[in-house]
Amino acid sequence: MKIVGYETLVRWQHPEYGLLFPDRFIPMAERSGFVVPLGMEVIRLACEQLVDWQRQGLSAQPLAVNVSPIQLSEPGFCEQVRAEIDRHDLAQDMLELEITETAVLDTQAMDNLHCLNEAGIHLSLDDFGTGYSGLAHLEAVPVDKLKIDRSLINKICNSHDDSPVVSSTIILAKRMNLKVVAEGVETPEQLVHLKVAGCDIAQGYHLSRPMPAEAVPGFHTSFNQMQETG
């Protein structure tokens, strides 16, 4: 096994309610329109973090950032992202943007996606299996990766059919030259099944729990040493 990238997790340390997860504040941010400047701030901070890791000698690994459908539908979004990457003097492929199926139903969103793709910025379709598009719609979307939702991964080894939906999705996605990522892998049995099925990448608590950014270089070093000795 090897580490192939990291993903940002946004949390709000509320002075009264404590640590809040995205489902508590992102819907409100989307309704108010605040998700647009908030999303760009997350991208800015992600770029800063990549620069900081590189200064610490961390080998080049892309960092993924989730993008709201509202953010993706903003005119000029692509140009703003490209400008942020250039300002931090990063390679375009060091930033990966994760979108949902519902985000690709808008004309402006599609224009931004093609612009980002042409700029060399990696794109992933997140939470696949929970939206409306289906695999047929993927032909029009310039994504590099398809991330299978954890709700489908949870069915692996928890039912008699061993989740043929996951295996079929992997086969069809690979025929479309897409890398396949399994989200929410929590058991070694799931990992083995996914490897046999041809899944390219896995993420989840079985591999690593969320950690603060400052812990990543140490984790990276320890992981590589374990692989060398293991």
Would you kindly provide a written description of the structure presented here, covering whatever features stand out?
- This protein is an alpha/beta fold and 230 residues long.
- It has one domain (6-229): EAL domain (TIM Barrel, Alpha-Beta Barrel).
- The protein is 43% helix and 15% strand.
- The chain contains nine helices and nine strands.
- It has helices spanning 22-32, 35-55, 69-72, 77-87, 107-118, 150-153, 164-175, 188-197, 216-229; strands spanning 6-7, 12-14, 18-20, 63-66, 95-99, 122-128, 145-148, 179-182, 201-202.
- The protein has a seven-stranded parallel β-sheet with strand order 1-4-5-6-7-8-9.
- Helix 2 runs parallel beside helix 4.
- It is globular and about 40 Å long.
- It starts with 5 loop residues before the first strand and ends with a helix.
List keywords for this structure.
230 residues; alpha/beta; TIM Barrel; two-stranded antiparallel ribbon; 9 strands; globular
Strand order of the largest sheet: 1-4-5-6-7-8-9
Helix content: 40-55%
Count of individual domains? 1
Strand content: 5-15%
**CATH fold group:** TIM Barrel
What structural class do helix, strand and pairing data support? Answer: alpha/beta
Order of helices and strands: EEEHHEHHEHEEHHEHEH
Q: Name the poorly predicted regions.
A: none
Radius of gyration: 18 Å
CATH superfamily: EAL domain
- The total strand number stands at 9
N-C termini distance? 11 Å
Largest pleated sheet: 7 strands, parallel
**Count, helices:** 9
Q: What's the overall average pLDDT, rounded?
A: 89
- CA-based shape: globular
CATH class: Alpha Beta
